[in-house]
Amino acid sequence: MQPALEILFMLLFVLLCLLGILANGFIVLVLSREWRRRGRLLPSDMILISLGASRFCLQWVGIVHNFYLLHLVDYGRGLTRQLFVLHWYFLNSATFWFGTWLSVLFCMKIATFTHPTFLWLKWRFPGSVPWLLLGSLVISSIVTLLLFWGNRTVYQGFLIRKFSGNMTYEEWSRRMIHYIMPLKFVMLSVPFSIFLVSMALLMHSLRKHTRTLQHNAHSLQDPSTQAHTRALQSLTSFLILYAVSFVFLMMNAVGFFSLGSDWYWLWQIVIYLCTSVHPFILILSNLRLRRVFRQLLLLARGFWVA
User: Distance (Å, rounded) from C-alpha 212 to C-alpha 235?
Assistant: First the structure.
């Protein structure tokens, strides 16, 4: 790849992460202010704050990690990188879980199933949100420690065999892929599967609700249908970003693109696309966030004109 194009992708990556940091920071600040003013948080706000905070940290870790990896040769093979990767794994896992609980909350609030199990879950879920968020952090911590322990053990074996001439860095990398890939697949596929189930239930609920309205000759513009449609539109955009992120993180686990690859920075852009673009979708689809965001835009425009 031409150096100019590579620099362009690198700058786009930094711009994307900075926009995501601003958007996620905005969500956390606005909802934290609401929390301080009201003294309590709605379940949806708990999830949004957790999701925004984890994405905010994840993007900073991504920027620092990539530029350390770019400028420090020894960093790529040392303990410092393993510590950065430790944080990156934890934040990635937590972000996937928080995003999943947000989709489940949408499904529970809007879907209109009458099955006793669904009604029980719908009743129990809002009160369980703090425990689900805490459980997500515990699960993410356990999986991250397993990954870090395996990474560290194999790396120590590499150092011992390196001095005896029995292992190269490439062989160590292949061993790490064989260890990390199954664990990372489980780490990300479980919340992704729950997300897909909630998405399928919401789509089925919308289809069932639409058929009922057509049968009764009612308008498709009633509040319930509009709520279904808005939630489905928001979740569909999230699904696309979520799925792209999942696929590219799996490719990352198998070392598909290395730092020396011509497409490394484009690959990084795609990986962080969900954490940078989805916050803006959340802001525009949330009445309180949208109102504050509009006020900030008007304030910025007035300042610029003045």
Answer: 23
Question: The pTM is what?
Answer: 0.85
pLDDT of residue 26: 95
pLDDT along the chain (306 residues), means of 10: 80 92 95 89 92 94 78 54 80 92 87 83 90 95 82 58 53 62 81 89 78 61 63 76 83 66 81 90 88 86 68
Angle in degrees, CA 82, 88, 90, rounded to 5: 105
Residue carrying structure tokens 């606005």: 30
Q: Write down the pLDDT at residue 220.
A: 52
SS3 annotation, the chain:
CCHHHHHHHHHHHHHHHHHHHHHHHHHHHHHHHHHHHHCCCCHHHHHHHHHHHHHHHHHHHHHHHHHHHHHCCHHHHCHHHHHHHHHHHHHHHHHHHHHHHHHHHHHHHHCCCCCHHHHHHHHHHHHHHHHHHHHHHHHHHHHHHHHHHHHHHHHHHHHHHHHHCCCCHHHHHHHHHHHHHHHHHHHHHHHHHHHHHHHHHHHHHHHHHHHHHHHCCCCCCCHHHHHHHHHHHHHHHHHHHHHHHHHHHHHHHCCCCCCCCCCHHHHHHHHCHHHHHHHHHHHHHCHHHHHHHHHHHHHHHHHHHC
Report residue 60 as tokens. Answer: 């900073």
Q: Give the per-residue pLDDT at 19.
A: 94
